[in-house]
Amino acid sequence: MLDFIITVDRSLMTNHHGKEFIGFMTTSPAVGLPEWLWMWICAPRPKCDKFGRPIEAPYGLRKIEAALVSAGFRAAIVDPDYLPRYIKSAKALLIGHHDFFAFCAPSNVWWAITKREPVNRKYFIKLMESRPVREFKERGGKIIIGGPAAWQWLHVEDLWEKWGVDCVIDGEAEKVIVKICEKILNGEPIPKYVFIGPEEVPSIEEIPVIVKPSVNGLVELMRGCPRHCSFCSVTLRPLRYIPLEKIEAEIQVNIRYGIRHILLHSEDVLLYGADGVRPREQPLLKLHETALRYAETLGWSHVSLSAVVYAQRNGRVLSKLTDMIFSKTGQRFIGVQTGIETGSPRLAKIIMPGKSAPYPSEKWPEIVEEAFSIMADCNVVPAATIILNLPKETPDDCVKTAELIDRLRPYPSLIVPMYLVPMGVLKDKRALLAFKIKPEHVDVMWKCLEHSLYWAPRLASMYLSDRRSAPVRMMISLFLKLIEWKKRSLEKKIREYLEMASEGAYEHKAVEEEEAVAT
Ligand code: SF4
Q: How many separate domains does the chain show?
């Protein structure tokens, strides 16, 4: 019997066939494929034990589970399909998500462009409106919401009442959740909204070690980021490095349950044990030696481009790490996420002055190019983001970004455009339908598409080369062919549109449309 059930909808309760990057597809509506097939590719049902507890579960949920279990509560993560078994006796349903309503990039971009709801939003709504959740509420059970996207609930106040949400926790919840669950068991009232301030953020000692495996063997190296980009909420968290013993303990948990791929997770893996923003060789070598004692294959979640350059210029650290990984595991490459965001030094200086550190913002495009070249030499394949429509962005900034994307063509990589879509657009159907992307943004997005379609077929066959991935590889390859065909059919139109835009034909129209949407 469980008092506290921790769960999430199918778009996150999955291991994405063991391929973390396929998870990106859950941020989009199904394109060119039926939705069931799309979901099968990106979010298959995970293996569960006979009690409906998934063998691998999202890392954030595992942390909440660990906090509650170590505090003595009867709590576990349960797959959403198994909820009917537990709703009669459970006291509370705890739900955590990265992007409940698709308000975060890239979900909001695909939503604004296609005018169709991404599957992560659809499946979350489906879960909240499902019969087990409704029956649980009718019985008087509590619903507690948390996770990195908790802020989104401040924009959907009507849904708190509609779905009977009792409490939303915004911030690192490992300490606070224990207090809330205690109150629930004691029948005491709980707060409607908790923002975790500095005094409630768990210290290193208070961050629990997960007790069951995480999706694709993800283990956390650090929290927070010292670069302080103005558009990023990670910087609100204090910077903490997880001690190697705790990282090793979490790797061991995964290995014990047969998860042999380990994904080192940090906003910047190369900053583990760093001197500020300067990577240090020794902690990185030690971290990798430890992980490689257990892992059959090893991955990195994110690196920053300036850390790549600094690490390589100072002791060829990137080469040493990748040589170590490839020689011990036999894998041929590492995929990693990174942020370019802009190709304009002017804009970089305004919105992300720390991103290029210890190098000056004026050098940002050169840093990006050098980092891509280093990564290509070391068989590290980046999936990089560009952010469009940033505050204070000018058309000239977009031209610089487009030029940088052109220069990155020789390096194996994917480049994904993110777009700061105003919340008003996503919350109002009329505004969403009227929403149009500016010509300079279309230009950059088109370049991202050309770049990514140039590399994607080769990268997909490398990434999905194992026999187990053959069906997914086939579907992805079909999907890429469809996108390539669609791109060719649109090419002429887009070129004409961009040509007319460069002659100023759309300026007047764009202003009129913006005014119409605003009113
Ligand atoms: S480098 Fe990345 S994680 Fe760090 S503040 Fe900037 S955007 Fe956020």
A: 3
